[in-house]
């Protein structure tokens, strides 16, 4: 697909059941420019679901299953948009999602955009915890330079993505935080609190918010230490 304005990359590992609703939300986008959808799938059933959906332009098979970072890099390599958007296969984006992200790139200095997360599950504890951990936390940290574009609701200008070498394939955890921190040295990374997405709270259900918070705190510490990298992988 030539002359694409924006590309959406969706890594999908064993997500046949959830992927359909993600793709349906992408098919409802009100974006006026040229848009392509690339799915990077790692199992035959998910690959088939992606290939059968009319909104998907390209499907790449992730045989190595090395993690979300390498999968996203694979998707970018198969795409051609000037703006790269990333979401996950258990996430539903609003119809204005692509348009809201892309409007920021009219400003040449902007190299990345992130937004808040909301839970797909309608339970008070999920709504409250997501509000604190996946919105207010970003609002507090962003002005301090600790930018953290969530992997299921972020976008990057392709030229900046290529400049910094994309996602660090050696990281299986906090790879989205890592690319955000490297990205901010190339330009402005915007937090748009008016551009939320809804994502599954199934991992929070399985692990618990207390353990999840501890996992992130330890991961942040490991990330800041020399010759260390965050090894936690609660996403498995």
From TrEMBL:
It comes from the Archaea. GO terms for cellular component: plasma membrane. Coiled coil: none annotated. Keywords: Cell membrane, Glycosyltransferase, Membrane, Transferase. It is found in: Cell membrane. GO terms for molecular function: glycosyltransferase activity. Pfam families: Glycos_transf_2. Residues 7-162 form the Glycosyltransferase 2-like domain. The keyword Nuclease does not apply. The keyword Membrane applies. This is Glycosyltransferase. It comes from Natrinema halophilum. The lineage of its organism: Archaea, Methanobacteriati, Methanobacteriota, Stenosarchaea group, Halobacteria.
């Amino acid at each position: 697909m030539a002359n694409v304005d924006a590309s959406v990359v969706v890594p999908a590992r064993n997500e046949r059941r959830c992927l359909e609703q993600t793709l349906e939300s992408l098919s409802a986008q009100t974006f006026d420019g040229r848009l392509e959808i690339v799915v990077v799938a790692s199992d035959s059933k998910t690959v088939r679901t992606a290939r059968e959906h009319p909104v998907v332009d390209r499907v790449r098979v992730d045989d190595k299953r090395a993690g979300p970072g390498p999968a996203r890099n694979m998707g970018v390599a198969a795409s051609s948009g000037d703006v790269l958007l990333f979401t996950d296969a258990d996430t539903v984006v609003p119809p204005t999602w692509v348009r809201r992200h892309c409007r920021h790139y009219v400003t040449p200095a902007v190299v990345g955009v992130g937004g808040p997360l909301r839970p797909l599950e309608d339970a008070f504890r999920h709504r409250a915890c997501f509000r604190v951990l996946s919105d207010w936390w970003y609002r507090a940290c962003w002005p301090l330079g600790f930018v953290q574009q969530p992997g299921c609701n972020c976008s990057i200008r392709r030229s900046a993505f290529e400049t910094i070498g994309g996602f660090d394939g050696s990281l299986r955890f906090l790879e989205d935080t890592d690319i955000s921190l490297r990205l901010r040295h190339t330009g402005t990374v915007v937090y748009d609190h008016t551009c939320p997405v809804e994502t599954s709270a199934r991992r929070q259900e399985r692990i618990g918010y207390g353990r999840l918070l501890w996992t992130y705190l330890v991961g942040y510490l490991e990330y800041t230490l020399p010759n260390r990298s965050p090894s936690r992988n609660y996403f498995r």
